[in-house]
Every structure is written in structure tokens, then in C-alpha cells.
Amino acid sequence: MSTPVAIYLQDAHPIREGMEYVQYAEKKGFDAVWQADSRLVRDAIVPMSAFAAVSDTIKIGSGVVDCWTRNPARLAATFSTLDDLAPGRVILGIGAWWDPLAQKVGVSRDKPLRAMREIITSVRALLANETVTFQGEFVHLDGVELDYVYQDRRPKEVPIYLGATGMQMMELAGEIADGVVLNYLVSPDYNRKAIEHLAIGAQKSGRNWQDIDRPQLVVCSVHEDRETAVDMARLMVTQYLGQQPHIMKASGVPQSLLDKVGEVLTWPATHDQVVAASRLVPDEIVHMLTASGTADDARKKVSEYIADGATCPILYPLGDVYATIDAFTNWNA
Q1: The whole model's pTM is what?
Q2: 111 by DSSP, 3-state: which?
């Protein structure tokens, strides 16, 4: 039996191309497609709707929407609507966002654990067709329900996956989420630590951590020429070294390298800056954080993530998307 595998799409391709990728992935037996919603480039909901409209079986997840900029009631209504389009196939992936982006748009990420707990609790209740009164520190609902008028009232089967990077958020995922989206550009050592904390959270609610789904984003650069594949991934790694150092620190990247890259990159970084800073990033860092090289190289690296706790790779394709899908069709970890 083949290992479940998913594809990850962001803003690198026109949405109509993304629709074709989703159809191809579904044809090849992929389990899910996850659409990014992190930077101020492409909202996840529109492409998710497009993907749902041209597919029949593949699951469609947000990878991930942030918990700050959408009111919980509106968030529940949005994913209820997506479920109307693709019943039983939609996944709400939600995360705590990151700075400096949040700061730049006026969002103060104070008490993210409390905010996430309140939001997941209230959104889940609304999707379950409950009337919700909730007076928390971040969520204020007074007798709110998804007030359907022209459709039958029913609970919506929309599982909530928490996109967690820090260990406290990982514990919260284990305690209250239906699944956890493990981050990309992290090392296998990070995974082992994350699973330990997921288990701590699961124990708080009397659950077994093995019963919590754990798909993981994996940057995947496949090319018949190994050096070309590694160079493509190096640019991606460099951008994140400068712009999302919290992920890099969690991966065990040396602070000295983070500092050197940070001296070259501004926010947002220009392409020329990324190219210049990439010369500072050695091959071993690229291989530690990505699945890069030939198809065999990529499959071998992804198998390491599965061995260290992930249940399904969510492949972030660099280069030829079709080649990445083909490389993992009927794949066994």
C-alpha cells in the first residue's frame, strides 16, 4: 500500500495552472492539496474554491490561514461554504502567523496560545452546528450560529489542523486539534522533539499522539541534475533564513549563519539580495532542510521525515510540478 502524499501550492503559478496540477495529482492518487496563505500575495480561499470545483476526491486544506485577521464566526462561515462545495474534503489549517509581517499590518501577536485555543474552540463549535456564546480574551460571541436559511442545518465535517512550529503550540495541537501541520525547512531532529511535545499535549486530553494526523510540509526540489536541484532549493532556504528565522532556529541552523544572511537581506527581500545571500549557504544546510536532488534523492529524504513522525508529506515543489508529482506516485516510504 502506497504512503499518503500531498502537494503544496502557493503563488508561484497562475491559479488556473494550479487547478491543472490538482487534477493531475488527484489522477495520480495524491491524498490532498494544501494552499498557502501566509504572505500578502495570495489568499488561500479563492484557489481552494477553484481546486474544489475541478476535483472529486482529493482533500483540500489551507496551509495555513492565520488566526488573527479573520473573525472566528466569519472563519467558520467561510469553511462551511467550502464544505458546501466539496463535502467532507475540506481541512481548516490555521496558524499563529509570524513577524515582522504581522507587526507591519498592525497585528500584535500577544498571547498566541490563548488566542488559538479560543479560536479553535469557538470555530469547531460553530461548524458543529452549535449556538455559541463565548466571552474570552480574544473571542466574543453572543448567541452566534451559522444561520442557514436555504439549506438543511447540519454539522460540517471540517477537521481543524494547527500549523505549529514552537513547542508550546505543538502541545496545544496535541491537546485540542484534529491534526498538526508540521512545518517545512526543519531537520529530522526537530521532528523528534516536536512529536515529544505533541504527545505531552495529547496526554492532557486523554488522547494518544499516534491518533493525531501529522502531515508535514517538505520543500522538494527534483531535477535529473543533482546540482541544479540543490541550487534551486538553496534560494528558497536563503529567503527563509532571512525572513522567517524562527523556523530556522527551530531547525538547528547556526545563529552565525542567520546573522550573516540577515545582514544581506531586507524585508521584503529583493531577488538580487536572495541570490547574493545564497552564496553564504552551504550544501549541507540545504540537504538538512529540504528534499533536493534526483527523484531517488528526494524520496530518500522524505522517507526520513516519515520515519521521524510525519504521516504524509506535503510536497512544496520547486521547478517542474508534474515531475515532483510523478516522482512520488505510488511511493512507499
Answers
A1: 0.93
A2: coil
